[in-house]
Amino acid sequence: DIVMTQSPSSLAVSAGETVTINCKSSQSLLYSGNQKNYLAWYQQKPGQSPKLLIYWASTRQSGVPDRFIGSGSGTDFTLTISSVQAEDLAIYYCQQYYDTPPELTFGSGTKLEIK
Amino acid sequence: QVQLQQSGAELAKPGSSVKISCKASGYTFTSYYISWIKQTTGQGLEYIGYINTGSGGTNYNEKFKGKATLTVDKSSSTAFMQLSSLTPDDSAVYYCARSGYDGTVNWFAYWGQGTLVTVSS
């Protein structure tokens, strides 16, 4: 299985700051056939289901604010949240879909707190 | 709009079984696979497997073979997951989810609200 490692496990920032969350995969998620990275990002607010933010490592899901930016390639990926707002309080997960299902795996999550 | 509506919380005894439902609406049910995902505080998010809602074909993560059984009722656009021989380790929130693209499993654009399963004597 591809292991997804997220860092940090938690962080606390003030509203208006920029946040960077990292996700590292145990093997490359870049498929040479289409040059796409098979990585998604989710946001899970307290008491809610996960919500898709980003797929193909950098494509924003419809309706997601443009302050959420996905980047990276190969084994190293980043979710950047610019001008953090109180409503961004959540746990953020990365997920790889490079492995043939049912071997999809998720990162362990990064908890974002607002000071 | 796409919606996945799951059945309510379950309290079950060790050794018993539970069957969770996921009713889909707002899209062509048989065009998209339904996946199931387990969430616990300790293990995070774990992928259980998926069902091809058109053919009924299934594919399970090795860890959940023998534990989970996925079925579908096309007439009611509902997917089901049965969990058998329950132990306290099966206590978790279980989600159904739909892929972003039809005919494959990749990212999950739509999620059910989750079903809490508690296994306790």
Task: Give the SSE map.
The complex is a heterodimer of chains A (115) and B (121).
Chain A: E1 4-7, E2 10-13, E3 19-25, E4 30-31, E5 36-37, E6 39-44, E7 51-55, E8 59-60, E9 68-73, E10 76-81, E11 90-96, E12 105-106, E13 110-114
Parallel strand pairs in A: 2-13
Antiparallel strand pairs in A: 1-3, 3-10, 4-5, 6-7, 6-11, 7-8, 9-10, 11-12, 11-13
Chain B: E1 3-6, E2 10-12, E3 18-25, E4 34-40, E5 44-51, E6 58-60, E7 68-73, E8 78-83, E9 92-99, E10 108-111, E11 115-119
Parallel strand pairs in B: 2-11
Antiparallel strand pairs in B: 1-3, 3-8, 4-5, 4-9, 5-6, 7-8, 9-10, 9-11
Summarize the structure.
The complex is a heterodimer of chains A (115) and B (121). Chain A has 115 residues and is an all-beta fold.
How would you describe what is shown here?
- The complex is a heterodimer of chains A (115) and B (121).
- With 115 residues, chain A is mainly β.
- Chain A is 0% helix and 50% strand.
- In chain A, strands 2, 6, 7, 8, 11, 12 and 13 form a 7-stranded mixed β-sheet that branches. A 4-stranded antiparallel β-sheet of chain A has the order 1-3-10-9, with no helix packed on it.
- The mean pLDDT of chain A is 96.
- Chain B is mainly β and 121 residues long.
- Chain B is 0% helix and 51% strand.
- Chain B has no helices and 11 strands.
- In chain B, the strands form 2 sheets. In chain B, strands 2, 4, 5, 6, 9, 10 and 11 form a 7-stranded mixed β-sheet that branches. Chain B has a 4-stranded antiparallel β-sheet with strand order 1-3-8-7, with no helix packed on it.
- In chain B, a hairpin with a 6-residue loop joins strand 5 and strand 6.
- Chains A and B meet through strand 7 and strand 12 of A and strand 5 and strand 10 of B.
